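ligand=S-adenosyl-L-homocysteine
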Amino acid sequence: MKQQAPVKKNEQYRVLVEDLTHDGAGVAKIDGFPVFIKGALLREEADIKIVQTKKNFAFGRLLTLHETSENRTDPPCPVFQRCGGCQLQHLTYSGQLAYKQNVVKEALARIGGLTDVPVHETLGMTDPWRYRNKSQIPIGEQKGKIVSGFYAERSKDIVDTDECLIQHSDADRAMNLVKAAASELGIRAYDPQKHKGQLRHVVIRHAKTTDELMIVLITKDKGLPNKKQLAEKLCETFPNLKSIMHNVNPKRTNVIFGEETNIVWGESVIYDEINGVRFAISARSFYQVNPEQTDVLYGKALEYAALTGTETVMDAYCGIGTISLFLAGRARRVYGVEIVPDAVDDAKRNAEINHIENADFFVGEAESIMPWWQAQGIRADVIVVDPPRKGCDESLLTTMAKLAPERIVYVSCNPATLARDLSILAEKGYETKEVQPVDMFPHTTHVECVALLTFS
Ligand code: SAH
């Protein structure tokens, strides 16, 4: 017999919210059947309307709140309800930190079967606003007007915004200036449906310790009308501007950057510092987006690495060498590997700028380069991994175990793949001692963690 969902579209119910998903939606059960309600918080009682049903769950819209959570707060951003950038502005900051700790605990238990691992309280920011040092802002046209802002949730519709409270204020000013100047100078926005028009994205990077600013214009074609006039306007407005870059992306794609990047004005990099180590950042480099919390995250990684100055450290997924160079001062030698050749060039240059001579960087897949290091007779006392969201390749986990380091420090931006990888490493003899969530992305559902593993 075909199972029927116990709820139907347009029906209304009064429900109690029993849980929050990792997307930040409230979960209520109607006859045991889960209904996801955006904007509802834990232990709230609400009237909802069913808006969509699926085989195993449904979506409901919040109508009226009867019992309100003590953790509910007014979202300060006027477009919070529509913009897909933030998901948690209606939850107090302390509520967000507790929620993120819980997301990590649940992922470890449910996916990794790791119920005994201590998960500490999330380390948060004193002032969790205006933290982002990089903004990637899509440009579009609506009713003949140039618009810019972030996409609505699960959509490619731009929510036109003048201000984003989680990005640096220079990013707001630059975004508004480009928007106004584009209209004035006859620059058309790119239309992804028709694959016509010019300006696709504006990327703005700000270096917290030096206040240097980089603005990257990403267009469909090489030519950009009145590029010089636009650059002049930007230079007049921002005395801290160090770099205007032009990237060309001719493809029909969601990927922001194309392959070609040229200097319009100034330098090709800006400089920032983390704990006294200086980094050159280019238009496309991966660089942590929350500078204040990067110190906290890397500080935790350093503490877990417990270096005394005699250790050899391997840093897989090293990017532009940030963690490697952060650790190099306390280690005998650091080996970094990274798949993007430009990032490895940056890492080498960053070592040079800082006169760090005990760090070597290699291009390639961590899962191929690390066995090769081992074949060269290189041993590791500590291995640090900081993979992208999909986590580590299983062959890398096997290689890590073969290298038999005393400690593994796992930095992760995805609790689900962290949980999976920690459980695989447990089978290979590496016990997870503790996990520290760090709030790198306040008001969003993203959670960053550092885990310490030792051989048992
Ligand atoms: N540790 C750095 C970068 C972390 S982001 C920092 O904190 O700044 C993850 C990095 O892994 C990215 O730079 C990405 O290009 C790289 N990467 C992705 N897959 C990889 C692989 N298979 N081998 C090595 N590096 C990889």
